[in-house]
Write a structure and sequence with these properties.
With 532 residues, this protein is α/β, with parallel strands linked by helices. The protein has four domains: 141 residues, Udp-n-acetylmuramoylalanyl-d-glutamate--2,6- Diaminopimelate Ligase, Chain: A, domain 1; 120 residues, 2-Layer Sandwich (Beta-Lactamase), CATH 3.30.450; 139 residues, TATA-Binding Protein, CATH 3.30.310; 86 residues, Arc Repressor Mutant, subunit A, CATH 1.10.10. The protein contains 21 helices and 14 strands. It has a five-stranded mixed β-sheet with strand order 1-5-4-3-2, sandwiched between helices. A five-stranded mixed β-sheet has the order 11-12-10-13-14, sandwiched between helices. A four-stranded antiparallel β-sheet has the order 7-6-9-8, sandwiched between helices. The protein is flat, with a radius of gyration of 26 Å.
Length: 532
C-alpha cells in the first residue's frame, strides 16, 4: 500500500495559481511533501548570500522558496551559489517568478547546476507582469492547513517515512522532532530522567518561551504522579509521555502548544513516532561523551550539541580545523586514534577525536601559531605507523562553525570511493580537492554534450595515451611536481619536463601555471572517472 505523504509538489502544481508553470529541473522531487513556503527577496546580492548562509542550524526538508532572484539577476555565479545554499539547507526547490522580466532567461549553466543537485526549479509563466506571490502562498498554505487538520491512522508511518526519505546524515531524532513541530505548530522538548533538556525544537523557532522553567514548574507533578496541574500560563498547554531507550532508560517528551490543546490521541501518536525514532537513531540518546557530541554535530542535532559541549566543557566555537581519517577496516582503529591523540597534542590545545563508522573525525582548534597546519597533516600522513590501514585522509581548514564541519563531512561521503578512481597514488587530500572532485563527478553524469564540452580542454592529446597519462599523473597524483611525476611514471625528470611542455603547446594552456590549468585539471578528473 502506498502511504499518503501529505501535500506533494505534484499536488500543488494542480492548483489554479500554478497554471502555465513548468518544472525545469529536479523532476524526481514531484512526490516530495511540501509543508511550508518561504519568500527570499532582499535588495543586496551579497546580503542575499549572507541571509541564506546564516541559517546554520536548520534543515528545511519540506519547504519551497519563492523568489524572482531580483538582487542577483545579473550574476550567474551568485544564482548558482544561492541554489547551492538552498540545497544545502534541504529546501525542496525554488518557485521562480518573472523570468523574462527580472531574469531575462535562465542560463544552461544554472539549469545544469540545479539538475546536478537534483534541486527543483519551478518556473512560473514567463513575461507575465500580472503574477502575484500571494496567490500561490494562499492556495498552497490553504492546502497544507487542510491536510494538517487531521491526524489520520497513517500519521506514524507517514512521519517516519518522511525522515527516511532524507539524506542518511539527516535521519535523526532531532530531525523527527523538527518535522513533527512543523506539522503540529507546537514546541517539542525531549529530556532525560533528571529533566535536563536533550533536544529542543521550538514553534515558532524564535519563540521566547522559557521552556526549561516551564518544565521545572510542571514536570515534577506530571512525571511523578501522572496527574495534570492547572497551567500557570493559560495560553500554553503542556502534555508529556515517557519514551524508552533500548537500555531501558526513560526519556520524557514534552509538547507545549500555545492557544490550543491537542487531543490525547494525537499526543499518543506523536510519542509513538518519537519512540520509533529513538529505536532507530537514538541509541544512548542521553549519553554524555565526546562521541555523542561529534555525532550530534554531524547529524545536525543543535540543541543536543550545545548541551553536550557545555557538560563536557568543550568550546565548539574554537574548532577551526577538521581531519577525516578513513580506515580500511576497524581492527587498528584504537591504535590509530591513540597515535593521533599523541601526535596532535603537540600542536593543538583543543582536540576532539572520535570514530563514526569507518571514519576517525578529528576536530581541532587553538593551534600553536608557529606551525603550518597543512604541514602538520602532511607530516602525519608521511610518518604514521598505520598508513596501510588508512584508505584516505582529508585536511579541511577554515571551519567557521559546526555547519562547515557537517557540510564537509557530508561532501566527503558523497564523493566516497570515487576518490580512488580520480587519484591513483595519493591518500591525503585537501578540502579544495574534495570540492573539485565533487564538481567533476557531477559533470561526469550530465550527459555526452556536457562531457564533450569539458573534455575539449584536453582534446588535442586524447588520442595519445602516453600524453594523457603524463598529464593526469602530473596534475592529479604529483600535484604539479616534476620530480614526483617522474618517480610515479618511472622516467627521468627531463622527460617529464619535455612532455609537459609539448602538452601545454598542444592544449593551449601552460599547465605549470596554477591560474591556467583548472579546466585541464577538471578534464583530467572527468577522464579518469569515465575511463576507470
Amino acid at each position: 500500500m502506498v502511504i499518503p505523504m501529505g501535500v506533494t509538489v505534484k499536488d500543488i502544481l494542480q492548483l489554479p495559481s500554478f497554471q502555465g508553470a513548468k518544472v525545469l529541473t529536479g523532476k524526481s522531487n514531484l512526490s516530495r511533501t511540501v509543508s511550508s513556503l518561504s519568500v527570499l527577496e532582499v535588495s543586496n546580492a551579497d546580503f542575499s548570500s549572507q541571509i541564506v548562509n546564516s541559517v546554520q542550524e536548520e534543515w528545511y526538508a519540506e519547504e519551497l522558496v519563492i523568489s524572482s532572484l531580483f538582487s542577483i539577476k545579473d550574476s550567474v555565479e551568485k544564482q548558482c551559489e544561492t541554489i547551492r545554499y538552498l540545497h544545502g539547507l534541504g529546501e525542496v526547490g525554488l518557485i521562480l517568478y518573472y523570468v523574462g522580466i527580472v531574469i531575462r532567461e535562465l542560463t544552461e549553466e544554472v539549469l545544469e547546476f540545479a539538475e546536478s543537485l537534483n534541486f527543483m526549479i519551478i518556473c512560473m509563466p514567463e513575461n507575465d507582469y500580472t503574477l502575484r506571490y500571494n496567490e500561490v502562498i494562499y492556495e498552497v498554505m490553504e492546502a497544507i492547513v487542510l491536510n494538517n487538520q487531521t491526524i489520520n491512522d497513517n500519521f506514524v508511518n507517514e512521519s517516519l517515512e518522511k525522515v527516511t526519505l532524507l539524506p542518511e546524515h539527516s535521519q535523526s531524532v532531532e530531525m523527527t522532532l523538527k518535522l513533527l513541530s512543523d506539522r503540529l505548530k507546537a514546541s517539542l522538548i525531549l529530556t532525560n530522567k533528571n529533566l535536563q533538556i536533550v533536544n529542543q525544537v521550538m514553534w515558532p523557532r524564535n519563540s521566547p518561551l522559557e521552556v526549561s522553567q516551564m518544565i521545572r514548574d510542571y514536570a515534577p507533578q506530571l512525571v511523578n504522579s501522572g496527574s495534570r496541574t492547572e497551567d500557570r500560563a493559560p495560553a500554553c498547554f503542556i502534555e508529556h509521555r515517557g519514551i524508552y531507550q533500548k537500555n531501558g532508560e526513560v526519556l520524557y517528551l514534552f509538547l507545549i502548544k500555545e492557544q490550543s490543546k491537542l487531543p490525547a490521541k494525537t499526543m499518543d501518536k506523536i510519542s509513538e513516532v518519537v519512540q520509533v525514532a529513538i529505536n532507530l537513531w537514538g541509541d544512548k540518546h542521553n549519553e554524555v561523551s565526546e562521541y555523542a557530541l561529534v555525532k550530534a554535530i554531524i547529524n545536525d542535532e543543535s540543541e543536543k550539541m550545545r548541551r553536550l559541549a557545555q557538560l563536557l566543557h568543550i568550546d565548539v566555537s574554537a574548532i577551526q580545523m577538521m581531519w577525516l581519517v578513513y580506515l580500511q577496516d576497524l581492527s587498528m582503529e584504537k591504535h590509530v586514534r591513540e597515535e593521533l591523540e599523541e601526535y596532535l597534542s603537540k600542536y593543538y590545545k583543543t582536540a576532539v577525536i572520535q570514530t563514526i563508522d569507518h571514519c576517525i573525525i578529528v576536530l581541532l582548534g587553538n593551534c600553536s601559531y608557529k606551525y603550518n597546519e597543512y604541514e602538520i597533516a602532511a607530516e602525519y600522513a608521511e610518518t604514521t605507523s598505520f598508513l596501510a590501514s588508512i584508505s584516505e585522509m582529508v585536511y579541511a581548514p577554515r571551519m567557521r562553525n559546526t555547519l562547515d564541519v557537517r557540510r564537509m563531512y557530508q561532501l566527503v561521503n558523497q564523493v566516497g570511493k570515487k576518490v580512488h578512481l580520480i587519484y591513483n597514488h595519493r591518500k591525503l587530500f585537501t578540502a579544495a580537492e574534495i570540492r573539485s572532485m565533487k564538481r567533476a563527478i557531477d559533470l561526469s553524469i550530465q550527459g555526452e554534450e556536457v562531457i564533450e564540452e569539458w573534455m575539449s580542454a584536453i582534446a588535442p592529446v586524447l588520442n595519445d595515451a602516453e600524453s594523457v597519462r603524463t598529464l593526469a599523473t602530473f596534475l592529479l597524483d604529483a600535484k604539479g611536481n616534476l620530480d614526483e611525476c617522474a618517480r610515479l611514471l618511472f622516467i627521468h625528470k627531463n622527460t617529464v619536463k619535455y612532455r609537459i611542455k609539448k602538452i601545454s603547446e598542444l592544449v593551449g594552456y601552460d599547465i605549470t601555471v596554477n591560474s591556467e590549468f583548472y579546466e585541464v585539471y577538471l578534464a583530467c578528473m572527468i577522464y579518469r572517472l569515465i575511463n576507470s
